[in-house]
Structures are given as structure tokens and as C-alpha cells.
Amino acid sequence: MTRHDLIRAVTGTTRLFGCIASPTDHVRAPMIFNKIFTERDINAVMVPVDIPAEQLVEGIKGLRALGNFEGAAVTIPHKLNLAVFCDELGPGAKAAAAVNAVRFTADGHLLGDNFDGHGFVAGLLGENPVGVLPEQILKNKSILIIGAGGAARSIALSLAEQPITRVDITNRTLSRAEEAVQLVQKLGGDTKVFAIQSNDIDFHAYDMVINATPLGLREKDEMPLDINLLRTDCLVCDIIMIPERTPLILAAQQTGRPVHIGRYMLDYQVDLIGKFIGAYEKTEDRT
Q1: Residue 149 burial (CB count, 10 A)
Q2: ∠ at Cα 79 (77, 83), nearest 5°?
Q3: Would the pTM count as exceeding 0.90?
Q4: How far is residue 89 CA from its own chain's centroid?
Q5: Which of 3-7, 125-129, 131-135, 201-205 comes out lowest in average pLDDT?
Q6: CA–CA distance, 9 with 14 (Å, rounded to integer)
């Protein structure tokens, strides 16, 4: 075991950060940030914070009351609801109407932003799962996003900025997909992003499919789609981080389709989140 495998010693002056979710067994942010804190000798620690959805208001009040809790990464199921409680939203959060990072100011105000879209696109271009020139990965592509939550909205907006042909958003409740599309269109994706009812989907028409739902977090979850409905060259993406190989990703691999796993969406936005929540500020230990 090396020094970088260890968490820096926690002291009375350690700054506290969290990863807000429910459940928390799938979160990766604490592992990533605690390694960074150790490598950079930052006196901070990030812990998983399990706040049930029905107790979100009380949970945030409790965190605000902590003198050394400064900010957090945010994931399922709180991205949409927590945005409502923020006193101020950054551009990414306004676009998605959802947050994946929040921080408290010195006077207790809660600020939120969202970097999921940037992380997903940057990860896709950086990892290049289809093995083509980077400028060809998204060019003229037709993409289906399953799910209409905060991450789906952020990803749709970022994809709409790329040279794609179209992004379709589908959701069990069509009105949610329509709301997501209206928001994205309002912010600049008006010619590329559409809502589609599940019964109207021609899966064979897509170059890329993205699972932006929680389906796959648990072993007994149903599949978000039938993998055999997709073209054999369709890129199958999941935004779930743990398990890294979800049933959808495994099914795609077993049938020879290219895949893009969820961990890259976080890996490619870690520094943006870290800077936003103030985690990288290296302050002297206070007595």
C-alpha cells in the first residue's frame, strides 16, 4: 500500500465535504476526492451523505449548521430537488434545472452548479470508445437518451452544442421528457433536441443510446431497453458509476457493441466540481 492509497489524517481542523445521495453505495466521488486530498496534501475529507428524498430539507439544514461542512457532490435522487433549495445557480445548473455540486458560502447561502454534460461529452471524446478520429465521434450522429432527470438534461444540452444530427429524449412519463426538451431548447438546443414516446422509438435509427436512469444500480433492476433492438454498431452508454459494468453494458459487450461506462462522466469533471465546492483550496491548519 502506498501513501496515495491512504486518506490523510483527520484532525480538528479538517474541512468536510460530502457526496449527497440515497442510497450511497454506488457513489465514487469520495474515493476520487480523498485520493486527491492525500496526493495534494489538502487537509480535507469527503464522506458519503445518505439523505432520503423525503428528508432532503432537513438534511440540508443540518449540513448548513455544521461549521466545517463546505460543499458536496450531488447525485441520484437529489439533483433536481436540491436545485430548488439553492440560493443561486450557476450556468450549468440553470441549463439542467438540476445540480451535481453545491457549496455553502460564509453567510450560509447555498450555491449550486451542474457539470454532468461537460463531463459526459469530454469523457466520450477523451476515451473514444468507437476508435475514430475525435472530430468524427459525434458528427452527424443520432442519439437517444433514456431518462429525463438532471443528468439527462445536462447531457442533452452539451450534446446539442456538438455537430450531431439530433438528440431524442424518452421517459416513462412523456411529460417529463417534454419538459426537459423545452428547457434545452430554451437554452440553445432548439433544432436538435426532441421528446419521443417510448412506443414510437425506432431503436435501429440511433448511432448512440445513453441510459440516464437509475436502472442498473441494483441487480434486480429491469433493463432500460432490449439490447437486441439496437444496431450492432450502436454505441451503448451508461451514466451509472457503480457497478461499473451494469447489466446494460454487459449485454452490449456480450453482443459485440461498443460501450462507454459511467465512471468517465465523473472522471472528466472532477476538477470542475473540486474547484466549485472549494475542495482544492489548500489552507493552513487552524488551531
Answers
A1: 22
A2: 135
A3: no
A4: 17
A5: 3-7
A6: 9
In 3-state terms the chain splits into helix, strand, coil percentages (rounded to 5) of 40, 20, 45
- CA 225, CA 236: separation in Å to the nearest integer? 11
Q: Three-state SS for 245? A: coil
Q: Which residue has the higher pLDDT, 8 or 44?
A: 44
**Average pLDDT of 40-45?**
94
Q: Are 82 and 56 in contact (CB under 8 A)?
A: yes
DSSP assigned state of 255: T
Dihedral sign, Cα of residue 159, residue 202, residue 238, residue 139: negative
- Top-tier CATH class for 3-115+269-277: alpha beta
Residue 255 C-alpha cell reads as: 453482443
H-run or E-run covering 157: helix 150-160
Within the chain, what is the greatest distance between any pair of CA atoms?
63
Would you state the CATH architecture of domain 117-265?
3-Layer(aba) Sandwich (3.40)
Question: Cα(287)–Cα(278) distance, rounded to whole angstroms?
Answer: 20
Is residue 18 within 8 Å of residue 63, measured between CB atoms? yes
Catalytic residues: 79
Q: For residue 285, what pLDDT is reported?
A: 42
Instruction: Please give the pLDDT value at position 286.
Output: 38
So where are the chain's domains? Answer: 3-115+269-277, 117-265
Across 43-49, average pLDDT: 96
Residues 91-95, mean pLDDT to the nearest whole number: 84
Cβ partners under 8 Å of residue 118, min gap 6: 92, 154, 158, 268, 269, 272
> Measuring CA to CA, how many Å separate 148 from each of 35, 43, 144, 203?
32, 37, 11, 18
